[in-house]
Structure formats: C-alpha cells, structure tokens
Write a structure and sequence with these properties.
By secondary structure, the chain is α+β, with helices and mostly antiparallel strands. Helices cover about 20% and strands about 25% of the residues. It is globular and about 60 Å long.
C-alpha cells in the first residue's frame, strides 16, 4: 500500500505541477440538450419535441422568479418553504384535501431580496408543521396577495425510507460550449436554458424510476453564476439560473436539502431561495450565502456543512451541536460540497483536500457513518476510512502549489488516512467512514478522473452522462446505488452498511 501511495503521489505531482489549485479546465464533454437521448455523436440532431417546447417557453421560465422551493424541516413533522414575491408577506396554508377545506395557515418572515431588472423582490420563508408519515397533504402559497394553485405533498415512511442524492446541477455551467447546429458558443442565459432542461429530465427520470423517494439532497453548486461584483446584469443572470433550477415540476412536491457550493457561496441568492432548518448562526467564518445546518428524518441525522468556510472549528461545533440535539439517531450522515476523498483530476487532490487533514479526525471522533460530497463532477466511492491518529498540517486557500516544497508537504500531509475496511457489497459493523462523490446530475460540466486511481477509492466512473444516487435507510441498513439518468441502470454495485 505504501508503494501504491508513492506512485500515486508522483502522478498527482505531475497533475498539480500544471498550475495552481483550480487551474484545471472542464473537459469538452457536456450534456447538449440539442442531441437525442440516445445520441453518441454530434451529427445526430434531436427532433425532441420536449426540447423545442422548452426553448419556446424559456423567456417565460427564466423570468419567473416567484417559484417556491421546499426544504426538509427540523424533523419529518415540518416542511420549510421559501419563495420570491413582488409584495412582502409570507403565508402558507396546508390541508388534507385539494379543496383546502379546514386548512391550517402558517406565517413567516419577509425580507428584501434581489433587485432583478429594476424590480425589487422579497425573500419569504415559512415553516409549516403537523405532518405525519404516509399521508397526502395539499399546500398553497400566497404570492403578491393571491393564493396560488394547491400543490400535492405526500409524506412517506419514517422507518424504511429512500432519498435522492445528486451532485452539482450547476445550472449555467455549460457556458462557452457550442450546441449541435450552431457555430456560436452559448452565453450564460442559453447555458441556463440547456442545463435547466436537463435538470428537469433528471428529476423526472429519477422519480419515475424510484417513486419511493421521500426527499432529495444536493451536494452544492445549484447554479453557476457567482455575481462577484453584484452588477445588475450579474444578478439578472444569477436569477435566470435560479429560475431554471426551480422550474423543475418535481420540486413542487419534493423537499430538497441543499448545501452551499463554491458557485453558490458569494452572494445572498442562496439563502434567499432556500429555507434551511436549524441554521448554524454561531458560525465564526460564514459566507454570504449563509450557514451549515442540520435536521433529522426517521432514525437518521443529516448534518450539512458549508465547506466554503475553511474554519474546521465551526464544522466541529455544528456536528457536536447536531448530535447533542439528536443523541439517539442511528445513522449520522454529513453532506459537504468540496470532496476531501474524491478521484477527479480537477479538485479531489488539490483544493478538495485542503480540509482533509482537519475534517477526517472530526468525522472519526463523532462516529459519522457516511459523508456525501460533490464538486468533482466525477463519480467515486471509497473504502471505509479512518484518520491515522497523527498530527497533520492545516492548509487554507492560499496554499501555493507552484512551490515544489509546499507541493510536497501538501501531498505528504494529506496521506492522513488509513483504509479500515475493504469489504464490498453488504458490510456488517465496519470501522471507519464511507465517503462518496457524486457526478453532475445535469451534465452541465464534467471533469476527468485522475490518471491513477487512489488506493482509498473502491470504485469510480466517468461515462460523461448524468447520474443520480438513491439511498435507502432501514432500522439497521444504509444502502446506496447510483444510476445512469438515460438508461435507469445502475453504474456500480450497491454498497450497504449494516449495523447490528
């Protein structure tokens, strides 16, 4: 194993010597909505009527900023709502019938949000409660003084449940790509149109193939635009991308637990559009997008870290607070954006592991079962890993990988793990933590895999096709399977952890 690590380090040296932390570019591979679902070459042009209809409706979709997002509540008895409106006022009502008879009304907060093309929008948030398992509910949101059409929301089992796990929808990331039938590179708006269409297709496919899904978790980079200078045009493009993301019809009935990706982190847009439960406002080094948070569902505790904040003490404090509030949770699941154990060329052995030396012992000490990651736009899952119980150097965003000695120290220090269990399939009472990195759920952008597979990686894949994962949790089992969106077939064997 040590020899393999030395070989791997040499390979990563070669890769990192090409530039600084984030110098690698995305590949030319992307999911072009102009192609048929079966297309394998760029000569096969789509006659897909859905795509034509989507393009025709895009001008209305991109400017529909008043779409509602659902998020899990603090526990399964709650449901969180967020939406933009032109008038302030946050009201939601919930009933057991589409007629909305005997509806219970909930009020929340309304704050000034973005100004889009000269129009001031308000960011509204409401928490509704009283939900019970295996029931059908209907909800209405009041927008600009008018109650909207009732939407159906079905709760599922709390003892045997499934959730959808996706990585990096990143609506707008196909900017600069050239679609079939065009000789022009896509601008930000056309990229959002392309990627939002594929986002809709992914969610529709996943829910059709797996109707048992209760909610979804997204490992970050919901959109692509960072709006660094907050100019009116940057804000407009950012809000086009949020409109495209939220346009998916599936999201009217599917709560989504999102994490803050690096492309979400620099503006308030993220916290305007999503109403996360138990936000960790004690965070000492937050980002403009907001904070980490936590919630429970059945026998599982979910802890979502904002790893754009490189202060590991904040993450330790959030994890400990979440566990203290949910001491009896059977499963402890962490979600982060920057993958600290991935296998992609672009991030997983550069900025993705800046936090590896610091987070690994925190996850170990708090008996985390699984860490679900994004950022790398490739699929990879690890063996069961633990820290090596040694002291390791901490790094931050300023690490200079152009310096040969710094580069050597960086890679040496990040060999901070042990492979605790290499069994595959169904593993009973394993030691260590399981890490998984999701590929892009839309195909808006892909990265290459590292030339040599790391010794901690059990399986990896880059098919240049969108994927999603389904996690099933029972009283004693955590099982994860990953699927190709187009075919619905598994791209890897199911990996299961059994606790007895």
């Amino acid at each position: 194993m040590k020899t393999k690590k030395r070989i791997l380090t040499a390979a990563i040296f070669a890769a990192i010597s090409l530039g600084t932390l984030t110098s690698f570019a995305a590949t030319e591979h992307w999911n072009d909505a102009s192609l048929t679902p079966q297309a394998v070459t760029k000569t096969q042009v789509s006659a897909d009527t859905d795509w034509q209809a989507w393009k025709a409706a895009w001008d209305d979709t991109k400017t529909n900023h008043e779409q509602v997002s659902l998020s899990p509540g603090s526990d399964a008895s709650q449901l969180n709502f967020a939406w933009y409106s032109k008038m302030d006022g946050a009201q939601v009502r919930v009933a057991k019938d589409v007629s909305m008879k005997n509806a219970k009304e909930f009020s929340g907060t309304s704050e000034t949000g973005s100004v889009v093309e000269g129009i001031q929008y308000y960011a509204n948030k409401v928490v509704a409660d009283g939900f019970k398992a295996n029931q059908t509910y209907w909800y209405q949101v009041k927008i600009d003084g008018t109650w909207q059409k009732p939407q159906e929301y079905k709760t599922k089992s709390l003892s045997d449940f499934s959730f959808l796990f996706v990585g990096d929808p990143q609506i707008g990331a196909s900017t600069g790509q050239v679609p079939v039938g065009s000789d022009q590179k896509q601008n930000s708006e056309l990229a959002a149109r392309n990627d939002a269409y594929n986002w809709n297709k992914t969610l529709n496919a996943a829910l059709t193939q797996h109707p048992e899904i209760s909610f979804m978790i997204s490992a970050g980079d919901q959109i692509n635009e960072v709006a660094k200078n907050n100019t009116p045009d940057e804000i407009k493009q950012q809000e086009y991308q949020y409109s495209g993301y939220l346009s998916a019809a599936a999201l009217r009935s599917l709560p989504v637990s999102t994490t803050i990706g690096n492309h979400d982190s620099l503006t308030r847009g993220y916290q305007n559009h999503f109403n996360t439960p138990n936000p960790f406002k004690e965070e000492q080094s937050p980002t403009a997008a907001g904070h980490g948070y936590y919630y429970s569902y059945g026998n599982a505790l979910f802890i979502v870290l904002n790893t754009n904040n490189y202060n590991a003490a904040d993450h330790k404090a959030l994890i400990e607070k979440a566990i203290a509030a949910n001491p009896k949770a059977k499963w402890r699941i962490v979600m982060i954006h920057q993958d600290i154990y991935g296998s992609g060329l672009d991030h997983s052995d550069s900025d993705g592991i800046i936090l590896r030396t610091q987070l690994t012992p925190i996850f170990d000490a708090n008996h985390i079962d699984a860490v679900l990651q994004g950022h790398d736009h490739t699929y990879a899952r690890t063996y069961q890993l633990t820290g090596d119980s040694k002291q390791h150097q901490a790094f931050d965003k300023t690490v200079d990988l152009k310096n040969e000695q710094t580069r050597a120290d960086f890679l040496t220090q990040n060999n901070c793990y042990n492979i605790a269990d290499m069994r595959q399939g169904k593993v009973t009472n394993p030691k260590g933590v399981f890490y998984m990195t999701a590929n892009s759920a839309t195909g808006s952008k892909y990265y290459e895999l590292l030339p040599i597979q790391q010794d901690y990686i059990a399986a990896r894949n880059q098919s240049w096709r969108p994927t999603y994962s389904v996690v099933n949790i029972t009283a004693d089992t955590f099982a994860i399977t990953t699927y190709d969106v187009g075919t619905g077939k598994a791209i890897d064997d199911t990996y299961s952890i059994v606790k007895k």
